[in-house]
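Project standup — Tuesday

K.O.: blocked on the structure for the chain from last sprint. Re-posting the sequence here as requested.
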Amino acid sequence: MIDPMKRWAAHDGRPDYAGLVTYAGLPYTEEPEELAGADAVIVGAPLDELTSDAPGTRYGPRAIRSASCAPGPHLEAGLDPLAELRVIDYGDAAVLPADPRGSHRAIERAVGEVLAAGAVPIVLGGDHSIAEPDVGACASVHGPVGLVHFDAHTDTAAELFGAELSHGTPMYRLVESGSVDPARYVQIGLRGYWPGEEEFDWQRRRGVVSHPMHEVRDRGIRAVVADALGALGPGPVFMSVDVDVLDPAFAPGTGTPEPGGMASADLLWACREIAGSVELVGADVVEVLPDRVGARDITALVADRIVREILTGVALRRGPARGSDE
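H.V.: unblocked you, prediction finished:
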């Protein structure tokens, strides 16, 4: 295990520009046996071969790590999730250029190693096709999972540009394979001009619940999240967050931006609220296409905060840290 903060142990913290880049300066390992005792584990999935528009999300995991802030207390929640939980950075899955199926197998294998250690995998994408192996790995352990899916797009096409494997098809494939229970599948933030009636008809027949962006706008995020939690019900839940659910003003660095989206404050609250209310067995944050270094990349920055809010929700649900006097 490597501790990237060790050389700065005598100081208040490490400068953002120095040292090994891990998520929030967390301990780093590539050895599965060193995951024992972890509550949550960060895994990178730097794959973008299956994007239908602008490439570059393969650099997302590195950018999110670079933009991530050091541990500290959440001013609204009143705790530091990285103090309450034992979180480790497990590096990146062994993806292979121009081999998306091989890369998917590598992602599923890395996530499976996290699950075998009894930890919650938090996966950094990468294009949204990575949901197929990471949700699939969770389902192989927990059985069919509920899915809460923040996105401008449904990603439920049977094929996109004639291809069955795509960042526009993973949710269709996960439902059809039995990894996701469609009656416990909730979409939030849909908008724009895709997909068409064929995909929405499939969703209605499967019982998928959709909360389009105009509903979020008109009813408010709190009402929508309350309904989503009701639809998810009890049982294991996976959270998948495509940053294009945000308005491009908040997340310009993504491959398929769509104006009229969520504000970052609403999304961050929703991620924390849901993670703190369900049996969360995994999460991913995808479609970050960086173009700046560190926290100057506001899309990578908000992706870091999405991860931090998910971890905060998990910490709130679990209660005080083990060994705490509280």
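K.O.: great, moving the ticket to review. The CA atoms of residues 34 and 141 lie 20 Å apart. The two ends are 29 Å apart (CA to CA).
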